[in-house]
Amino acid sequence: MPAQHLGWRAALISLLLLAALLMVWHLATLPKESAASAAQDEYAKLMGKSSGAAKRDGFPGLAQMGETIRKELSNPFYDNGPNDKGIGIQLAYSLGRVGLGFAIAAVVAVPLGFLLGMSPLMQRALNPFIQILKPISPLAWMPLALYTIKDSSVSGVFVIFICSVWPMLMNTAFGVASVRRDWLNVAKTLEVAPLRRAFLVILPAAAPTILTGMRISMGIAWLVIVAAEMLVGGTGIGYFVWNEWNNLSLTSVIFAILVIGVTGMVLDLIFARLQKWVTYVE
């Protein structure tokens, strides 16, 4: 089957699944008439209010979600104070923290991964430390970071660094160690300098594996920053979710969840495209 036809069929199935999900959501959130609701409507009439003015309980329907999405996207960058910022500003704060922590992790993990991949001695020496530190939850570092750094935003960047460094480090070391011996032997025969060999032979060969590690790290970082911002507050998409929950705005919480998911998908697609650019067929 041609790849183009397969893509169209996959897109059609995705649209059908989305339509089915929205239909189930709509049917599940249809208002149910009961004696209590009828009494509430009668009370509203006696008080001179319309029955529609009563606040609706339960899970929000599609109409409510559509209104919230329209409202949030109509002015996503408004700023009315510390606890009232648009979704665009909150998302920008989160992306900034993730980008900075991820960049610092890349600067540390990639050169160190090269060292581990090219030196079995250093790999054995550092492996115990890596195996001890790698399983620790990034959020477990948050109290220590807050105590030492005393800044919630910088602490969030530190947590992103911690969670991003391990997948990049391990994948870089694996990719460098897996470079074909034939290529390294040819470079050695031609008396290529070590630094030149690292950039012209090892890096292109290990690039797909390194990008895979970066892709995994970015996915983990985006997961962690939302949880971290819920803990420390202030700004960010995680804080937006927690603040809207405290305001009992379930529609805004669901909208923020959708934004988090779409942003994570876009970030993953970016790294998938970069991975294709550096992958070659032997």
Automatic annotation (TrEMBL):
Residues 91-271 form the ABC transmembrane type-1 domain. Keywords: Cell inner membrane, Cell membrane, Ion transport, Membrane, Transmembrane, Transmembrane helix, Transport. It holds the Pfam family BPD_transp_1. The chain crosses the membrane at residues 6-28, 98-117, 129-149, 156-177, 197-214, 221-242, 248-271. One of its GO terms (molecular function) is nitrate transmembrane transporter activity. CDD domains: TM_PBP2 (cd06261). The keyword Transmembrane applies. The keyword Lipoprotein does not apply. Gene3D superfamilies: MetI-like. GO terms for biological process: alkanesulfonate transmembrane transport; monoatomic ion transport. GO terms for cellular component: plasma membrane. It is a multi-pass membrane protein. PROSITE patterns: ABC_TM1 (PS50928). It is found in: Cell inner membrane; Cell membrane. NCBIfam families: ntrB. Belongs to the binding-protein-dependent transport system permease family. This is Nitrate ABC transporter, permease protein. It comes from Herbaspirillum aquaticum. The lineage of its organism: Bacteria, Pseudomonadati, Pseudomonadota, Betaproteobacteria, Burkholderiales. The gene is ntrB.
